[in-house]
Amino acid sequence: MAGILAPGLGVLAHLERLENQMSRSRKQSEEPQSVQAQERVLGTKIQKLRHLRDDLKAAVRHRRGSVKACIANVEPNQIVEVNEQEALEEKLENVKAVLQAYHFTGLSGKLTSRGVCVCINTAFEGNLLDSYFVDLVIQKPLRIHHHSVPVFIPLEEIAAKYLQTNIQHFLFSLCEYLNAYSGRKYQADRLQSDFAALLTGPLQRNPLCNLLSFTYKLDPGGQSFPFCARLLYKDLTATLPTDVTVTCQGGEALSSSWEEQRASHETLFCTKPLHQVFASFARREKLDMSLVS
Amino acid sequence: MDETVAEFIKRTILKIPLNELTTILKAWDFLSENQLQTVNFRQRKESVVQHLIHLCEEKRASLNDAALLDIIYTQFHQHQKVWDVFQMSKGPGEDVDLFDMKQFKNSFKKILQRALKNVTVSFRETEENAVWIRIAWGTQYTKPNQYKPTYVVYYSQTPYAFKSSSTLRRNTPLLGQALTVASKHHQIVKMDLRSRYLDSLKAIVFKQYNQTFETHNSATPLQERSLGLDINMDSRITHENIVEKERVQRITQETFGDYPQPQLEFAQYKLETKFKSDLNGSILAEREEPLRCLIKFSSPHLLEALKSLAPAGIADAPLSPLLTCIPNKRKNYFKIRDK
Predict the structure, then answer these.
(1) B259: pLDDT confidence band, cut at 50, 70 and 90?
(2) Are B49 and B72 part of one and the same domain?
(3) What is the C-alpha to C-alpha distance for residues A12 and B32, in angstroms, rounded to an integer?
(4) Is residue B186 within 8 Å of B90, Cβ to Cβ?
(5) Engineered SS bond to B303: which of A107, A176, B261, B282, CB 3.0-4.6 Å?
């Protein structure tokens, strides 16, 4: 009874099952086929690449062999050529070294497409300091294209005075200002870095380093009053101050020995570079200490 | 701590984004390391601010401390202000400038205080030889308004100062006078240059925007640079107008150089010129009076935009000198009249 009343369940379901079986088996038989096809394609590719590799290897071997043969058969002319090449390279190195050495003259330049780029290398007491550039356009009138001179150096004034009439004077004057500025800056930097122990407060300075103000003590731990120094550099082309005032912070009238010291310090600051004065202070202090102990 | 000072500090700290807070507080250097370590910066901002105010009260912050915090905030957020440029000049034959920062500050403050009685002046020196001055303005009868200060950035031993643009213009002459006298100059003039980017203004005014120089150590000679167009090109393709492209590239490089352009947001041209036309007999051409109009070019980075015009094919090279002279003439406001 169940079989007749629900024929779908039986026959149709069976048909479906047979259909699925067939499609599954077809897929299985197809897969290996496509995989096989792919394998075949890759196999031929591998063979081709192997052939190519072998050809290239042979070509390299051949080349190397012929080069070796060439070198073995080298003629005297070819040896001379190699020597000439070495000589040229040596000349080139020499020229490069000479150009670099120009830096140490303080003033050098390189021709550019529109004029010349001048390089001013500043120095103080044998120490090479910052470099500054001025790119000049050679036209009538001669003009400055761009530069790396600090804004507080009176470049426009110097150019207004000399650039059109006497370019040498222009360059020398600019060198003077820049070297003096570099020198003053160097002294102030050295004071701050090397002699901080002798300073009792921060060093007051300005961009041009032409006004320095500081307080110092000869014996850092000791009981003495600190000195106040004020250094004015009114000549911007000089590295030594034009006006020096040293006072004692104690305020009251100084004993004659303090007065002598104060006056001698004033003279020292006027005549010797700042960091050298402090170096002598430090040496004296060491000497005193060694005498005491 | 005064209530107004507390409120002022609170409002300033509230402006600071959380991710900048520790940096700015460290730069302020008013609260100690220990005090800062007690603050939990991960809370809600209101809680952080409350805790900080409490610490400031403990340390008795003064108006000057608060003003200093305001200066530091402004230094970190320079671009929020628009800056004008002023140029001072000395008389002929002046002595060498022996700039003394202490004297300058005292003199500047005295001049303002003598004139206005109620004014807050604060200073903060930076490493690049600049001093930031903050001025909060009051009058003879009213206390200074701390929420509308003017900032001046003065570069000592130069004639240049940068001032934040503000709507309170009546104090500008007094400010100019204070700056001029304190820095030992005679005159002050406003330049036709304005931008939000203080660094760019400085580069333009000090002529420091081009710092590439040819030396014997230069690696590549300047002529060897290639167009960059033809690196991966198929050799069968040729540019019909390659000569023109190279010409444009050369002119652009000569005009704008290889360096990054200073950043300006606009250039403004006020024209008062007679109308010029090819067509005869047009009404405008017959007009005797000059036409007045205002042309404004705006861009997030105007000079780079101008530099890219000719290579992009939008404009002919060379560009009008009115556009290319901006950094050289140190102007982005122009008045053009018929000669």
Answers:
(1) very high
(2) yes
(3) 89
(4) yes
(5) B261
